[in-house]
């Protein structure tokens, strides 16, 4: 029995060639869903689609380009329409706010926020017509905990959290749910440089109450639940998946006789 009841569902995953994206794609495929892979890296998508099977296919798609989104939505609509959309694609252009370039600020908002809305509109159309569907947006604890020297990243993720809540209110009466997953520290190919140095890795692990760095699969497991009928009464929520890191502030305050 497929406990998550995703057999035969069409799940669209953006940023599918990345670390979390690939974990999401594999997780949905393992649960019987037909996965649509969207990313700018078409070569990586072809390889992943071949691995997943079950009718999975990839399309080159830059979510900063409305024409790419429209083409992908039309293809998926021809296949029966999306049941699940996971907005995962994102970029980071680091830098302090005092000197962040307008072009970098705008690019991050265009992909990390506006792209999520454009995708939700395009793929939510079929969901709204059927009166059921699920949106899952990959946000970040940086949306509630300001992350220094990261340009528009924290601002974009904070706005994503509110966008999801607004969608949950507007689309909930029409049967479509919207939720966020907010990762903390996750070890992916893009963040691998932070973990090749044993001292840095150990210091990061020590900050997390569970004393380990998350894997992409940790994020995928939560996204699966939120996308599934098992979460049919969950909407407008932000599920923080950070091993307790964002709850650790008061634990950093020195107290005589106490050691974490």
From TrEMBL:
<dbReference type="GO" id="GO:0047936">
    <property type="term" value="F:glucose 1-dehydrogenase [NAD(P)+] activity"/>
</dbReference>
<comment type="similarity">
    <text>Belongs to the short-chain dehydrogenases/reductases (SDR) family.</text>
</comment>
<dbReference type="InterPro" id="IPR036291">
    <property type="entry name" value="NAD(P)-bd_dom_sf"/>
</dbReference>
<protein>
    <submittedName>
        <fullName>Glucose 1-dehydrogenase</fullName>
        <ecNumber>1.1.1.47</ecNumber>
    </submittedName>
</protein>
<dbReference type="InterPro" id="IPR002347">
    <property type="entry name" value="SDR_fam"/>
</dbReference>
<feature type="domain" description="Ketoreductase">
    <location>
        <begin position="9"/>
        <end position="189"/>
    </location>
</feature>
<keyword id="KW-0560">Oxidoreductase</keyword>
<dbReference type="Pfam" id="PF13561">
    <property type="entry name" value="adh_short_C2"/>
</dbReference>
<dbReference type="InterPro" id="IPR057326">
    <property type="entry name" value="KR_dom"/>
</dbReference>
<dbReference type="InterPro" id="IPR020904">
    <property type="entry name" value="Sc_DH/Rdtase_CS"/>
</dbReference>
């Amino acid at each position: 029995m497929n406990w998550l009841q995703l057999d035969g569902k069409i799940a669209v995953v953006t940023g599918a060639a990345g670390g979390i994206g690939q974990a999401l794609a594999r997780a949905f495929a393992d649960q019987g869903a037909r996965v649509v892979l969207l990313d700018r890296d078409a070569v990586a998508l072809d390889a992943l689609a071949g691995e997943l099977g079950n009718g999975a296919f990839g399309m080159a798609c830059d979510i900063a380009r409305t024409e790419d989104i429209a083409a992908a939505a039309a293809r998926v609509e021809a296949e029966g329409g999306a049941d699940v959309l996971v907005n995962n694609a994102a970029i980071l252009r680091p830098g302090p706010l005092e000197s962040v370039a307008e072009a970098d600020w705008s690019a991050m908002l265009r992909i990390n926020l506006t792209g999520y809305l454009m995708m939700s509109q395009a793929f939510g159309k079929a969901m709204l017509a059927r009166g059921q569907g699920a949106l899952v947006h990959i946000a970040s604890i940086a949306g509630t905990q300001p992350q220094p020297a990261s340009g528009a990243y924290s601002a974009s993720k904070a706005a994503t959290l509110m966008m999801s809540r607004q969608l949950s209110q507007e689309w909930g009466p029409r049967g479509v749910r919207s939720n966020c997953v907010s990762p903390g520290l996750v070890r992916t190919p893009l963040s691998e440089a932070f973990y090749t140095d044993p001292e840095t890795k150990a210091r990061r692990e020590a900050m997390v109450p569970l004393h380990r760095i998350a894997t992409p699969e940790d994020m995928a497991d939560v996204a699966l639940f939120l996308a599934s009928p098992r979460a049919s009464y969950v909407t407008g929520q932000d599920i923080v998946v950070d091993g307790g890191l964002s709850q650790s502030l008061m634990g950093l305050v020195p107290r005589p006789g106490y050691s974490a």
